[in-house]
Design goal:
Blueprint: E1 2-3, E2 6-7, E3 19-25, H1 29-40, E4 44-50, E5 53-62, E6 67-77, E7 83-92, H2 102-114
Antiparallel strand pairs: 1-2, 3-7, 4-5, 5-6, 6-7
Helix pairs in contact: 1-2
């Protein structure tokens, strides 16, 4: 998938709609985490920091389709004040367990929040 001129990895399977992307940003991991915290503050469920790598777990309920979505972001140093962010969004619920786009919507919101800091390439 190409998103704003950058190729992002997208993965999906038949049972759930999972979206995964990786990109490099002109922010150190702690500042990128701050941007995500500002965007999703109420949805932050857990955060871990180990050796400069930050793992953030978010969860959101989508009223429009009665489903929950999860977003996990791993922010690691990418040299010279930059960070590599790998995010995975997943959703599902309801009687049949289908994800009606909640996982991909949640992952897209994270990409949008960091978009002004993306390293072209």
């Amino acid at each position: 998938m190409t998103w704003r001129g950058r190729t992002l990895t997208v993965m999906s399977d038949d049972s759930t709609d999972t979206r995964s992307w990786t990109a490099v940003y002109r922010l150190p991991p702690d500042q990128a985490a701050s941007v995500l915290r500002q965007q999703f503050g109420d949805d932050l469920r857990d955060v871990y920091t180990v050796d400069g790598v930050i793992v953030m777990v978010f969860e959101r309920y989508y009223l429009r389709n009665g489903q929950r979505a999860s977003l996990t972001a791993v922010l690691s140093p990418a040299g010279a004040g930059a960070s590599r962010v790998h995010a995975v969004g997943s959703g599902g619920g309801g009687f049949w367990g289908f994800d009606w786009g909640t996982g991909s919507d949640f992952a897209s919101l994270a990409a949008d929040a960091l978009s002004s800091y993306i390293v072209p390439g």
